[in-house]
Amino acid sequence: MVKSWEKENSKLYSHVVGDIKMNVTVSIDRLTIIGDIVKERFEETIKNNHYGFIVRKGIAKYPYHSNFYMTDGSILQWTDVHTHRALRYDFNPNKIIKDKKENIHRRSVFDIIKTMKYPEFSRIDIAIDIRNVDLSQYQVIFDKSFKRNYWENGSRRLETLYLGSPKSSYRIRIYDKRLEQKSDDDMQWWRVEIQLRGEKVQEFMKHMNSFCIFNHLKFAKLPIQDIEDIQTRSMIYYLLNNPSEWNHISKNTKTKYKKIISELSKGHEIDIDELYKAESLRIRKELLLWLRIAERNNII
After folding, report:
1. Residue 98: its pLDDT value, please?
2. CA torsion 63→31→75→55, rounded to 10°?
3. Which one of 5, 27, 30, 202 has the minimum C-beta count within 10 Å?
4. Which of 24, 10, 91 is nearest to 276 (CA)?
């Protein structure tokens, strides 16, 4: 059950699983846009530096020649190497300030994107913030056998989990956001973040309505103690805590244990794809909006 707290396009909503009510926020956390250069606009934007948005210029790593650093931490890169798109802009839409200066900040970001033509994304990060639930107390259920990296504290409490390798075009990061922010707030705050790059970005943009972005990622509280047979109970516990071992059992055995886990988790699951779907239309519209800023340049 999902209940809207504010107006239709709000990022904040509540979600209920069993007897737990959580607060959920879905947002675009990082974007990289690449495109060809509109030379006159690029030169004018750099020279005039409206609102002092550009802090400084620096030398970039190959294939780029120059980095332009902005007040919000975003970076515009330029190159004349013909095998690469001339401009690359990396920014976080969540950092656009939400006060009386928002219009100026947003306009400054727009001005940077307007220096491009034929823009496209090379990276998209989407974040789901979950409050009022401690995800370290849940089992991670994920269909794909991706590389997993865990970080735990001295009490073996999960703090960060990566699904996928650093160089992968598809990677999920799960972490204790309250801990990262060093927040004194008592409310639990976890973030589940998807990072799409390269071919996965193209696949997502082509099939936005049907793309299963979190690959059936779920968190579940499993009452393993309710399984009477100790061998089955031990095997389920072992597989859940050693995900790579799923690759070493037969298809029939895998099906058997997945069915047991599915039955155990009913009514106790946090389905991340479900949380995303509640806000997916707004996210898709927002992504397309960023590209439309420079769309009229395509006829130049």
Report:
1. 79
2. 170
3. 5
4. 24
Half-sphere exposure (Cβ direction) of 232: Cα atoms closer than 13 Å = 16
Query: Cα 83 vs. chain centroid, distance in angstroms?
Result: 29
| Single-letter code of the amino acid located at 211 | F
In this structure, what are the phi and psi dihedrals at residue 186, rounded to the nearest 5 degrees?
A: -75, -20
Find how far residue 90's CA is from the centre of its chain: 15
Phi–psi pair at 28, nearest 5 degrees: -85, 120
3-class DSSP state for residue 213? coil
pLDDT of residue 182: 87
Map tokens 């056998």 to a residue.
Answer: 145
Residues whose CB falls within 8 Å of the CB of residue 220, separated by 6 or more in sequence, listed in order: 138, 139, 141, 261, 264, 265, 268, 269, 270
Of the candidates 216, 119, 209, 214, the one whose C-alpha atom is nearest the C-alpha of residue 170 is 214
pLDDT at 153: 86
Query: CA-CA distance, 25 to 279, in Å (whole number)?
Result: 9
Please tell me the distance from the alpha carbon of residue 287 to that of residue 188, in angstroms, as a whole number. Answer: 29
Question: Residue 186 burial by CB count (10 A; 0-12/13-18/19+): exposed, middle or buried?
Answer: exposed
Helices 251-265 and 230-241, packing angle to 10 deg: 90
Give dist(CA 174, CA 190) in Å, integer.
7
